[in-house]
Amino acid sequence: MTVIVRDLRPEAPGEVEAFVRVRRLALPFMVSTARSVVHDLAHARPEARYRQLVAEEDGEIVGTAQVGVAHDSPRPGLGFANVYVHPERTRRGAGSLLIRAAEEHLAAHGTTRVYSWVLDGPGNLAFAERHGYRASRSAHFLRLDLAGGTLPPLQAPPPGVELRTAADFADDPRPLFALDAETTADEPSDVGAEFTDYEAWLEETWRHPLLDAELTTVAVVDGRPAAFTAAHTDGATRYASGMTGTARAFRGRGLAKLAKNASLHRARAAGYREAFTGNDTGNGPMLAINKWFGYEICATEVRHVRERA
Q1: Domain boundaries, the chain
Q2: Which numeric CATH code is attached to 3-111?
């Protein structure tokens, strides 16, 4: 059996679908589609040096990797490489070849530190350790049964607060860009991010095919977006929280919970059957909110890092 690693070929019939299928088998808690994979590749910033790699065994795609430079981090020299292998094709060299190709690519573009998310399981953790990665922070995946579960009752917004959708900002989404930038800057992470390029945000976030503008919900206070929950969907049955956050001046008022509850109710009414989200294990407030909604932890990932001299 021969395994080779190469770039994803979006133009090849069925190849993007195979990429999505392998990633979903390896990581069933993430929502992605063929359109979203193509969009990510087509609209990545040049300075991100973004690549989508595949491991191919005898003509079959058995592994994937998403690789790039953390260009929006205030700290230079950071890169990422997230590798996923078909659960029935592990221990055959695909993962090692993918991580090697990823590291060579990142080294060629000046990175000195590589971050990688690794599912919390003995085999995955041992793989990371063998390749020189050490564990750092961790995060939970959470799942909510929208079809059979019970959501908290809908609540009327308090005086002065209005719930809108992202679609209401279609003519001018810049206020949502400002809110997204502020909340992202405060999100727990070992690789910080700063959103300063509005045009890039429009391409990479606002026009992303997973973003559902009708389900993305914004709490507006006195005309200003104060909190939001971004809804990502596959257009069929799966819903995911792309980001939930509140502007600093409005925290502690339950606005993010209000927006997310409204979004989940509308997602269920639209036919979505399961919802996913992710939280840093140290983010107690968001974990408590998601527990209130009925989310349950379904898996954990551990962020790993490798330093390059």
Answers
A1: 3-111, 144-300
A2: 3.40.630.30
Asked if 73 and 193 touch (Cβ cutoff 8 Å), the reply is: yes
- For residue range 98-140, list pLDDT tens digits in order: 999 999 999 999 999 999 999 999 999 999 999 999 999 999 9
Q: Which residues pair with 224 in a beta bridge?
A: 221
- Distance separating alpha carbons of residues 159 and 162, to the nearest angstrom: 8
How many of the other CB atoms lie within 10 Å of CB of 78?
21
pTM: 0.93
Burial of residue 19 (CB within 10 Å: 0-12, 13-18, 19+) is: buried
**Could you please report the per-residue DSSP string of 49-80?**
T-EEEEEEETTEEEEEEEEEE-TTSSSSSEEE
Torsion sign across C-alpha atoms 292, 293, 297, 303: negative
10 Å CB burial of residue 77 (0-12, 13-18, 19+) is middle
The whole-number pLDDT of residue 184 equals: 87
Question: What's the CA angle centered on 51, arms 96 and 179, to 5 degrees?
Answer: 120
CATH class of 144-300: alpha beta
* Beta-sheet strand order (sheet of 224-233): 3-7, 51-57, 60-69, 78-85, 113-119, 296-307, 134-145, 274-280, 238-246, 224-233, 217-221, 161-165
Nearest to 229 by CA among 276, 193, 283, 297: 276
| Share of the chain residues as helix, strand and coil, in percent rounded to the nearest 5 | 35, 30, 35
**Alpha carbon distance 27, 24 (integer Å):** 5
